[in-house]
């Protein structure tokens, strides 16, 4: 069993995009709808994926930069993209294979579960509900839930406080998630098939996995 300071981990907190779900196609569709309204050329999926991870404001900033949109349009386009994405159906978002089984087994074995994501909270809740995952989680913190976003430790610490007194394992797919775990002083499990930008060897982690079917054994969370 993984431990933190000698205590067994009894709570698991997950990132959302690129960790539990592949949401990039829906994000791309929303970005391209916004760009079409602005008379700008659309972006391909790999480019949009490379922009994901730091929250909606940073996504908008990167899209504006690559399409030469003046910075004075930032607030307007941020609100517009949030409205477009918030109204989307999540049809293009898929749950990674094995996630549903893992979440069910963790809950059966008494683990408390939470979500800490840089996606705005209401779209995050909408995606989780649309994909039948929301009931697994007792607390959800999004990128706009607080005044700061990951890698600041406060969002993860806020989820941890709701799961207290349990020790926490954080599960994510990116450099931002790894830095967040380090900043919050918790162990980190890296899902290698998400939206990371760096080689696995360059991302700090305690355990890593490429298949959710392997998660429980690799994180040593089976026998609790």
Would you give an account of this structure?
With 224 residues, the chain is an alpha/beta fold. The protein folds into two domains: 147 residues, Rossmann fold; 63 residues, Putative phosphatase, domain 2 (DNA polymerase, domain 1, Orthogonal Bundle), CATH 1.10.150.240. The protein contains nine helices and nine strands. Strands 1, 2, 5, 6, 7, 8 and 9 form a seven-stranded mixed sheet that branches. The chain has a two-stranded antiparallel ribbon with strand order 3-4. Helix 1 packs across helix 4 and helix 3 crosses helix 4. The longest helix is centred in the first third of the chain and has 14 residues. The protein is globular, with a radius of gyration of 17 Å. It starts with a strand and ends in a 6-residue tail after the last helix. The model has no long low-confidence stretch (mean pLDDT 93).
Keywords:
16% strand; alpha/beta; single chain; Rossmann fold; 2 domains; DNA polymerase, domain 1; 224 residues; 9 strands; globular
Query: At the first level of CATH, what is the class of the largest domain?
Result: Alpha Beta
What's the N-to-C terminus distance? 8 Å
Q: Briefly note the CATH topology name of the largest domain.
A: Rossmann fold
Q: Characterize the biggest β-sheet.
A: 7 strands, mixed
Mean pLDDT: 93
CATH architecture of the largest domain: 3-Layer(aba) Sandwich
Instruction: List the domain count as a whole number.
Output: 2
The number of helices is: 9
Q: Which regions are unreliable across 5 or more consecutive residues at pLDDT < 50?
A: none
Q: Please give the radius of gyration in angstroms.
A: 17 Å
Specify the helix fraction band.
Answer: 25-40%
- From the helix content, strand content and strand pairing, which structural class follows? alpha/beta
Care to count the β-strands? Answer: 9
The shape, in one word, is globular
